[in-house]
Amino acid sequence: MDSGKEYSISKAKELIKQNLKKNTYKVNFTGGDPLAQSKAVAELAKFVQGKKIPTYLESSCYDSTKFGQVLPYMDFIKIEFKTPESGFVDTKHYSKLLENELECLRIAKKSKKITYIKVVISSKTQLGSFKKLLRQIFKIISKAELAGFIIQPTYGISEPSLEQLFSFYDAVYTYYDQVRIVPQLHKFIGAP
Length: 192
Fold this sequence. Notes:
The protein is an alpha/beta fold. The chain has one domain (25-188): TIM Barrel. The protein is 42% helix and 16% strand. The chain has helices at residues 9-19, 38-50, 64-70, 91-110, 127-140, 162-173, 185-188, and strands spanning 27-29, 55-59, 76-81, 114-121, 148-153, 179-181. It has a 6-stranded parallel sheet with strand order 1-2-3-4-5-6. Helix 2 (38-50) runs parallel beside helix 3 and helix 5 (127-140) packs parallel to helix 6. The radius of gyration is 17 Å and the shape is globular.
């Protein structure tokens, strides 16, 4: 499926410049995965930082090398973790994805970036594997080094029950008391 529009770096910079408002407080790099175009994202983020506007990366962190290339130009980081049975990644590739996600977390911590964690939860997500993931995350980063932890339930397909969400919330709360459950608002309003 083809979606979106393709722009040159110079045109993208021009569009950013034209659309910055007096009250723009940050520019987000998200959607799909920004690491797929890491060189372009790094260049655009550097441009935005040159305007004295903070930058924000949200990524599944599937490639820690590309993550390291964009990190110097980001002020805020949100690393999106998956669980093996969630259905968001096939099981034969899960261990490599998790390895990259955890390495990105190490790199973000070492660089002292403002770091958030997000885990998307579906009805297929198992509490046991979620708890295992939490142990791995909090071996790397302490609650004092983390800016926030978000549990995001899927919407429409394989939605978790309220009971499941509370179980995941309680599991995180034992490590980090600023956990939030945030729905996929873009789905509610019909945005892609």
